[in-house]
Specification:
Blueprint (H helix, E strand, L loop, with lengths): L2 H31 L15 E3 L6 E3 L2 E20 L5 H4 L2 E6 L6 H4 L3 E5 L2 E5 L8 H6 L1 E8 L2 H8 L6 E12 L5 E3 L13 E10 L2
Parallel strand pairs: 7-10
Antiparallel strand pairs: 1-3, 2-3, 3-4, 3-8, 4-7, 5-6, 8-9, 8-10
Amino acid sequence: MSLSTVVKIAIALLIAFFAIEKLRVHRADQRLRSPVGTTQQQPFADTPVQTATRDAPFVRQGYEIKPLANFAVRARVLSREDYSLGREADLSRTDLALGWQRMADPAVYGPLNVSQGGRWYRYSWRDQPPIPLQEIIESSANMHMIAADATVERALAKVRKGQFVRITGKLVEVSHASGWRWTSSLTRSDSGASACELVWVESLQVED
């Protein structure tokens, strides 16, 4: 191998090295520039993301709130309902019926008759459901919203049917000294009584 060939190979290797290094630095810089919130970073996916938490219980308005899991979801608002009566409304005044995956598609949820009441989410259809019933169950849910602070409360007040929302927080259990208890579901595959998520909302964003 001639000296000139060796030099050319060395130059090519150097160019390749610096190109790779430049790309690595660029990606690292992007990560550093990404906004970091004060709460634990959680991913958004086509289905809600739920992970274990070790957060300790805390007290809010005379109720003990026990975190059960970290929670994050990006979903379509199928319906909203506000409440003012009952112990539940002491902490949670708004329920959001949310849909993800195919239940976020207007062509799918549009033919459904979606309603809320009594802290429940209901749906019905004519003839045949637009997608299998179990898929409706697993890709939609009624969620009781507990705003963690005034900022979240203001954001929640602006949420409307048809919007996409991003929510992060905790699934929780709420209890009172009287013995009253309200516990979140921890699975997306249930339906009926006790199937709703009870969400301590730490951040809420409405997508344009």
